Amino acid sequence: MADSEGSFSTSPVLEKLDSNDYSSVGRGYGTYGIVGAAAAAILIPILLSTIFMGKKKVKQRGVPVEVGGEAGYAVHNARHAELVEVPWKGATTMAALFEQSCKKHLPERFLGTRRLISKEFVTASDGRKFEKLHLGDYEWQTYGQVFDRACNFASGLIMLGHKEGTRAGIFADTRAEWLIAFQGCFRQNITVVTIYASLGVDALVYSLNETQVSTLIYGETTNDLGVSGMSNWKVSSFSEVEKLGENSPLPPSLPTKNGIAFVMYTSGSTGQPKGVMITHGNIVATAAAVMTVIPKLGTNDVFLAYLPLAHVFELAAESVMLSVGCAIGYGSALTLTDTSNKIKKGTKGDASVLNPTLMTAVPAILDRVRDGVLKKVEEKGGLAKKLFNIGYKRRLAAIEGSWFGAWGLERMLWDVIAFKQIRALLGVRMRFVLCGGAPLSGDSQRFTNICMGAIIGQGYGLTETCAGAAFTEWDDPSVGRVGPPLPCSCIKLVSWEEGGYTVADKPMPRGEVVVGGVSVTAGYFNHQEKTKEVYKVDERGMRWFYTGDIGQFHPDGCLEIIDRKKDIVKLQHGEYISLGKVEAALTSSDYVDNIMVHADPLP
């Protein structure tokens, strides 16, 4: 997914992720399940391929549509004649969607958190100390319990003195209390301001001051706040606020569809961060649209949550999950697998314990899993390496449509022979991965499809479109594309003559990607001029956002991002790089006469 300053992001998603965060994700892959019937397993697929030869039909996923506004080439989702706005009748706000889903799934598991058994510090050979955690099983709260906690928290905020019409900020790691506080605020029509830690202290102070936040929901202890000596601040624990509300419950003051649900701060390449005003209608529409894309989504699913909730990618994903009654288990990037950096030796990682069916991921995670496994394959060599390579090629041929019989008997055979222990890295039940934050390489996508047995849903969206722009469909085997428009949006390409991209180009129309529909947000907080620059409303009343990205539409209606109007590139971790600044710095060197800078976002 992408934000307004770079391709494939969800606000500043993972802009400052430490490259070591995921360094151990792929290390846990051990010996293969090599069986004595290896020769037979190789011959059977060859026989099957001969019997089931076939060619897949091209499916029309997006169709051209006439729209208003600036001239261009517009496409909408082929399966939906009208834009999707709500998941079901009456769920027009996040508050309504949350309440209705909680009542529908009252006794079902909702939010899960691992029990902390102990923590210790170990000293490395270089003298550095590292924290290691011994974590137990997940402890669950039901939909009914979470709803009660959200109501109590909402009443507690008001009793604590939070004034109607003022904003509350959330500055905390991804956890159950984050979502409870978020939903609790909506029960009293409180707008939430979300801030991501990587923006830095200056950006945090700027965001809080600009939005005049009067209540800050913080994720650490009171001492860490640094406000214990400030007489004008009242500090209470999360549980104290809940208890206050439980003892003095207040009737809800519910928001409207067009009310601002949250202001999400996203950094650009320069200057101060911008606060994107996202309405209840925006986030509900995105959730409703994604629900139509992921197959068989429901109460049997378990979602592994660990990416920052301060970004629209994770927030939109968890909104989808709560809508369908899915169980959400919280983890972290540093405890994700059995060999993650913060996991104590002998302790299982989050994925092993939770055994999820769904998760979000950024390409950096999937790339490290692939690289770690391939390194182990190379180290083992011999028959194990040969079987892995044969199985990989057979499954790859099946996915790309050269033959038909890959997803039955042969799939099970290769899973046992070559891929069983690889699948265990992220849980053997993993079936669908929602990927965003940066462009995903074709190699990593195929590796996840084949070795993890999971479908990749690669998304393209922006904070300004509440993540709702394009999303690859589950049965699309292609790589390098971001799918057709989501059912909540319409995507238009507008010619950029200066850059040489026009909608008349052959063989595919090209131009700046402009997103319109019910997921397009209300604009930037307190920045009307910037809002007018990139947001437009056409004569039919549809709101459009000009992304600055350059795309092209394939004949089946799927979008591919091919360039960017600005000279800014986004690397795999979501980090922005200004080529102009790099070039200027290098040119100033006495050792450089002339230079051309190119940044490849893929490895």
Secondary structure layout plus pairing:
Elements: H1 38-51, E1 62-64, E2 73-77, H2 94-104, E3 109-123, E4 129-142, H3 143-160, E5 167-171, H4 176-187, E6 192-194, H5 201-211, E7 213-218, H6 222-225, H7 238-247, E8 260-266, E9 274-279, H8 280-291, E10 302-305, H9 312-324, E11 327-330, H10 350-354, E12 358-361, H11 363-380, H12 382-399, H13 409-423, E13 432-435, H14 442-451, E14 455-460, E15 470-471, E16 489-494, E17 510-517, E18 523-524, H15 528-534, E19 535-537, E20 543-553, E21 559-564, E22 568-570, E23 576-578, H16 579-587
Parallel strand pairs: 3-11, 5-6, 5-7, 6-8, 10-11, 10-12, 12-13, 13-14
Antiparallel strand pairs: 1-2, 2-16, 3-4, 8-9, 9-18, 14-15, 16-17, 17-20, 19-20, 20-21, 22-23
| Strand adjacency order, main sheet | 4-3-11-10-12-13-14-15
Total helix count? 16
Give the CATH topology of one domain.
Rossmann fold
Radius of gyration: 25 Å
Structural class designation: alpha/beta
> Gap between N and C termini, in Å?
18 Å
**General shape:** globular
Strand tally, please?
23
Oligomer: single chain
What is the CATH C-level name of one domain?
Alpha Beta
Mean pLDDT: 85
Instruction: Give the name of the CATH superfamily of one domain.
Output: ANL, N-terminal domain
How would you characterize the largest beta sheet?
Answer: 8 strands, mixed
Name of the CATH architecture of one domain: 3-Layer(aba) Sandwich
Percent of residues in beta strands? 15-25%
What share of residues is helical?
Answer: 25-40%
Pfam families: AMP-binding
GO molecular function: long-chain fatty acid-CoA ligase activity
Protein name: LONG CHAIN ACYL-COA SYNTHETASE 8-LIKE
Keywords: Membrane, Transmembrane, Transmembrane helix
